[in-house]
Amino acid sequence: MKKFLQKTWVYVIVVLLYVALGEYFLIRIQEVTPIEKVAEIQSTSKRELYYGRQVLGNSLSTYKYAIFERVQPKKVLVLGQSVTLQFRDFLFEPYEDEFYNTGLMARNIGDLNHVADLFESGEIQKPEFIFLGLDLSFVLKHTVLDKTRWIQDMPDDKALRAKSHLQGMQKLMLNARLRAKPEGEIGFGKAGMEGRGYRNDGTYRHKPEIEKYIQDSTYYDGELLQKLKERRLPFVEPFEYDDVKAERVLITLERFKNMGTELLIYVPAYSDFFFNEAIKDSMFAGFWQDFMQFQQVLVDKNYEVIIFTTPSGIGLTDNYMVDAEHPSEVMSAIQLRNYVRDRKESGGLLEQLTFRTVDSLLNNNHTIPISFLKDSISQSLKD
Fold first, then answer.
1. 14-18, 57-61, 159-163, 370-374 — which is least confidently predicted?
2. Any alpha helices (H) in 138-271, and if so which ranges?
3. Does residue 251 register a pLDDT over 50?
4. Within this chain, do residues 234 and 123 fall inside the same structural domain, yes or no?
5. 72, 131, 259, 351: which has the fewest C-beta neighbours closer than 10 Å?
6. Is the pLDDT of residue 120 over 60?
7. Can you give the pTM of this predicted structure?
8. Edge to edge, what strands does the sheet with 99-101 contain?
9. Closest Cα partner for 326 from 206, 227, 215, 197?
10. Total of domains in the chain
């Protein structure tokens, strides 16, 4: 045993040093701050902070649910996929202090029903108003998003998993850029400290895309069209509309309506560049015809719906898109404001929205199509 220890102690020390150094860097870039701690701080902070891990992983549905459970917004709740993440709190002025955007928490119709269960049981306080993004995944017959289950598949916080720490250390040792501590400390995780990630209100700040646009004023469509041509997710064959899923969506919407909750449905936009090419694809066009018929069913059933558009449909250009399938916060604000001002219905929370901040920002010389720049890094540090 003594000889064994004499031969191995050097290796043990090297391993311990490796672990200690790796853990130091993980702490240095705030990757190890637990989600519960992030939720506690973000939900009470007056200063804009960001949550964005680059090394350990964000455990997004767990993160969003932790803040949702803590905040339990009385007025406005945003539900949906990433297409909703640019609908910020001040768009719903004067209720921005009673708002939370849970985008990416509920990924499918089963998740939406679980949210309804939480409200009906009283476990979570029911909001007065729900803004629901309904993208094609909710009526698409074959999608990997349907395989997730709320409780069973809620991911563990990777900051609390030893295996994730060891994997993170390996990434750090192979990438010196990840080890570098950002100059500003305005969030949690490597990206969050740099000002990219999820804000206090749950929305997402696309810092690299914003900085790129400031440099060259050029719109980048992303790889969505290439994914369609190559039949990659989400356009994997058979790419078909599902009548059964569509009926389940209608039943779930009826659940929310029966609770007395105001509901606004958002059918997300595509860029003109992508959509004008995609609609020439017979597979996409066949599905799209059915999807637009479903949109009309929602309208006919007297649901309030912000209908599908491309930027040109509301007098804008693709510069107002973050990429092919994600409208910027500026376009999102314009879509919401236009809908509220043109709606035929009266009453409810929507009628109380003022859009004073939105109007002011739209007239601000610093606003660019992709961002209001309301929470620039310099402003955040100064505040």
1. 14-18
2. 162-174, 176-179, 189-194, 207-216, 224-229, 243-258
3. yes
4. yes
5. 351
6. yes
7. 0.93
8. 99-101, 76-79, 129-133, 262-266, 304-306
9. 206
10. 2
